[in-house]
Amino acid sequence: MAGATGWTAELISARHSLERSSTAAKVADILRDMVMEGRILPGAKLAEDSIADALQVSRNTLREAFRLLSHERLVVHELNRGVFVRVLTEADVIDIYRMRRALEGAALQFWGASADPGRAPGVSHVRSAVTLGVAAAERGDWDGVGTANMHFHRSIAALADSARIDEIMSQLLAELRLAFHVMPTVRDFYEPYLGDNERIATLVEAGRSQEAVAVLLDYLNRAEDQLLREFASKAGRHSAQADPAST
Amino acid sequence: MAGATGWTAELISARHSLERSSTAAKVADILRDMVMEGRILPGAKLAEDSIADALQVSRNTLREAFRLLSHERLVVHELNRGVFVRVLTEADVIDIYRMRRALEGAALQFWGASADPGRAPGVSHVRSAVTLGVAAAERGDWDGVGTANMHFHRSIAALADSARIDEIMSQLLAELRLAFHVMPTVRDFYEPYLGDNERIATLVEAGRSQEAVAVLLDYLNRAEDQLLREFASKAGRHSAQADPAST
DNA sequence: ATTGCAGGATCGTTCAACAAACCTTAGGCT
DNA sequence: AGCCTAAGGTTTGTTGAACGATCCTGCAAT
């Protein structure tokens, strides 16, 4: 680009590529991607032998990768039975949204109030996530809207400026993606909330954090309800033929 | 139907007693206790060979135990260098207290408001933690006061009634115990806060959650400051001659 | 329809081995 | 002396094989 400074910046951004990582971490990366993309569905068993064979790693290393993923709650480990892709229950969804209310709400209320321009960088990230989502919606890219929505909520939590909160937040959103597999189409899920995000961003920029919290909590309530409704309807569909009384 | 369901319910409550655990988990338990009691100090290296030899387990299972502990942030794993007992930095303390403000504050504000007796159980736990602390203080058991204080804050977070929040909270308090090793005596740390806990409990019982949040946040500020001061004085003692600018 | 009992499959754990990365130490150079 | 380099020993990362323990499946028996 410009010159010498462009060099170093480029190098820094490429630094992660030479951050060595154990093969267990790489294996975990591969499996995580497949789970998140829905190529391995919740409830599926991850057999040690077949996966170790397919990836050409030893069972011991694969087991270390499993530990990493179970720590992220993407898989569950049952003693002597193996590991399975996590199946979210209604209780999980309720719990996750309860935590989101706590983290995002607190971030907005305690740290979103600083209206002075000195702490604007965090707020500007919120705004850019909103515009990103609007742009994606305008070109009909509902997958992009979903990604932007995640950015939005992560930027809300990031107002607290805490590495731990950021990490937990990413983990919660990753978990939720397991639940999104029950959604028939992502559009129905994300479309209603574009306006909410915009309103929250505006309120934060105006320093009216109390009102922003109110909108956020209302948003979380509706999103949670929608997910739970989808869960209930799916459960109904499944137990219909599992009912043994009709033989 | 009434009789049969009573049976199974009782069985479910006793189910945990036959929950077997892997040897890796047992090894992690042993090491966790030693770290928490200060028998292994922060910064110490946990060599695989010697520990595996002492505990009579294979290196592989020991490494699985290490994963568990590093997930709890009690040890850190450096690639090709080994695992070390976590050394908390000032930045860590700041971050942990930021998270505590978010979780405990949100729990108190969003879920502590329910003054109806129907949701009293959670509030009663807060109260009993307070009386436990007072009793310990009266008999001079300052270790007991510390334990009661942890119970108190865990019961505050438990108002949210979320398994995830409970887990994170326990983890944060466990991490903080690593920092407490810098405190000369625990009494100086806990004594000033007995009154705060009592006041918070009373406010919660009265349904005045907004005021309770204020007291709690003030408490967290002071506790954080005290810890950071202790950190600074210790660092000063260590690097006194490393700073050539001041005379 | 439930119970009891093989047989096979999978997991938990150990062991021994080797390559790779790290740390220490001894020389060699200016 | 002080600094760089190279050799050697030590510890970690990963593998492959092995064996007991546990779980699952199918079939026979009541």
What does this structure look like?
Two copies of one chain form a homodimer. Chain A contains eleven helices and three strands; from the N terminus they run H-H-E-H-H-E-E-H-H-H-H-H-H-H. Chain A is mostly helical and 247 residues long. The first copy, chain A, folds into two domains: 20-85, Winged helix-like DNA-binding domain superfamily/Winged helix DNA-binding domain (Arc Repressor Mutant, subunit A, Orthogonal Bundle); 90-235, GntR ligand-binding domain-like (Four Helix Bundle (Hemerythrin (Met), subunit A), Up-down Bundle). A three-stranded antiparallel sheet of chain A has the order 1-3-2. In chain A, helix 2 packs across helix 4 (59-71) and helix 5 packs antiparallel against helix 8 (163-180). Chains A and B meet through helix 4, helix 5 and helix 8 of A and helix 4, helix 5 and helix 8 of B. Chain A binds a DNA duplex (30 and 30 nucleotides) through residues 20, 22-24, 47-49, 57-61, 63, 79-82.
Relevant terms:
homodimer; 247 residues; mainly alpha; Arc Repressor Mutant, subunit A; Four Helix Bundle (Hemerythrin (Met), subunit A); 2 domains; 3-stranded antiparallel sheet; 11 helices; globular; DNA-binding
Q: Which fold name corresponds to the CATH topology of the largest domain in chain A?
A: Four Helix Bundle (Hemerythrin (Met), subunit A)
Largest interface: A-B, 30 and 30 residues
Number of domains of chain A: 2
**Annotation, overall tally of beta strands of chain A:** 3
Largest sheet properties of chain A? 3 strands, antiparallel
Q: How much helix, percentage-wise, in residues of chain A?
A: 55-70%
- What is the 3D shape of chain A? globular
Counting copies of identical and different chains, the oligomeric state is: homodimer
CATH superfamily of the largest domain in chain A: GntR ligand-binding domain-like
Individual helix count of chain A: 11
CATH architecture of the largest domain in chain A: Up-down Bundle
Q: Report the sheet-strand fraction of chain A.
A: under 5%
- Terminal Cα span of chain A: 73 Å
- List segments of chain A where confidence is low: pLDDT < 50 over at least 5 consecutive residues: 239-247
* Name of the CATH first level of the largest domain in chain A: Mainly Alpha
Spatial strand arrangement across the major sheet of chain A:
1-3-2
Protein structure class of chain A: mainly alpha
Helix and strand element order of chain A? HHEHHEEHHHHHHH
